[in-house]
Amino acid sequence: MKILVLFDLYRAPKADEVFSARVLKEQEDKPTEADVLRCLGRLGHEVETLAVFDNVLSIIEKLKAFEPDVVFNLTESFHASRRNEPNVPALLELLRVPYTGAGPDSLLLCKDKPLAKKVLHYHGVRIAQFRVSGHARPLKKLRRFVFPAFVKPIGEESSDGISQASFVRDEKEALERCAFIHESFQSDALIEEYIEGRELYLSVLGDKRLSIFPPREMFFQHVAEDAPKFATFKSKWDDGYRKKWGIKNGPAKALSKELEERLEKLARKVYRVLKIRGLGRIDVRLTPDDKVVVVEANPNPSLAREDDFAQSASAGGLEYDQLIQKILDSAIVRWTA
Predict the structure, then answer these.
(1) Per-residue pLDDT tens over the stretch 116-149
(2) Is 2 helix (H, G, I), strand (E, B) or coil?
(3) Residue 203: strand pairing partners
(4) Domain range annotation of the chain
(5) N or C: which end of the chain has fewer CB within 10 A?
């Protein structure tokens, strides 16, 4: 197939820039794009790339010139804003160009975390108690709220804005953290009941027919038993920090058959309710008494070969090249059905 790999930069690309897999990984810190590009080459597809920043016409012109069979959409921002992520697939929809991954409706819904939580709650999915402190109208009190809690920016991804200071023990700490988020991110803040338990990731592939892969888990080997454990920005992306605290991601520890079935059923339900397609990851907390609480859903999760989604697919019997091909095939079927 003719495939256009579409990704974003936080700067305007130069006219003569060439984005090979090596350049993407080593110079642009884009391991997902590098891994996907190498894989498409191994699969024998005709591949071209387009880096976008703020030029809509460059996308249209490239599509007209190359006429791809499908766009492998890896964009997460436009004009350096993650809020614009849904607009790129929306443009592709208008142009009637097949593309991989989630549509604009799902991206809009899941990026509005409070709205997504309300939708899940309406459909009977267990979520944590939460409040929203608006950037324009910050909360002054938190009446009848359960502490400890967890405070994070609304609309950010990849745990951006989440640190150890996000864990708050009372109203005063919560409102102080909200004020920090309002000032630092110019964003509303989500205050969410902290759920003690294990951090699990449920990976889902497909559109009409779904594949649910074996769960992954984040382990905190050197963190004190009674200390709060959650995924901060550093615990996800800082290798030195992860090594110091023994933070690793891997196959979930032993789960009962009944619990595995419940997790699979939950993943399917959340995926459908939030209109995710192509691929998605559902993040949950598993309490000591085996209650499952949905934290959030992530359409278009990272596809780097060493990240949770691809590793989960491998554990389910789908190696990386097969996974990428299935994602492509799903996009083609969706647009030709």
Answers:
(1) 999 999 999 999 999 999 999 999 999 889 899 9
(2) strand
(3) 281
(4) 2-99, 129-193, 196-336
(5) C
Q: What is d(CA 206, CA 331) in angstroms, rounded to the nearest whole number? A: 9
Q: For residue 247, report the phi and psi dihedrals to the nearest 5 degrees.
A: -90, 120
Q: How far apart are CA 127 and CA 302, in angstroms?
A: 24
Tally helices (H) and strands (E) across the chain: 12, 13
What burial letters (b/e) apply to 100-118, b meaning 16+ CB within 10 Å?
bbbbbbbbbbbbebeebbe
Q: Are 195 and 149 in contact (CB under 8 A)?
A: no
**How far separated are the first and last CA of the chain, in Å rounded?**
18
Maximum distance among all Cα pairs of the chain, rounded to whole angstroms: 59
Can you give the pTM of this predicted structure?
A: 0.92
What does CATH list as the number for 129-193? 3.30.1490
Cα-based torsion angle of the residue sequence 319, 325, 327, 332 in order, rounded to the nearest 10 degrees: -160
Cα radius of gyration (the chain) = 20
Q: Please, are residues 171 and 145 in contact by the beta-carbon 8 Å criterion? A: yes
**Summary mean pLDDT of the chain:** 93
Q: Strand locations in 149-231, DSSP E?
A: 149-153, 167-168, 189-193, 198-206, 210-212, 216-220
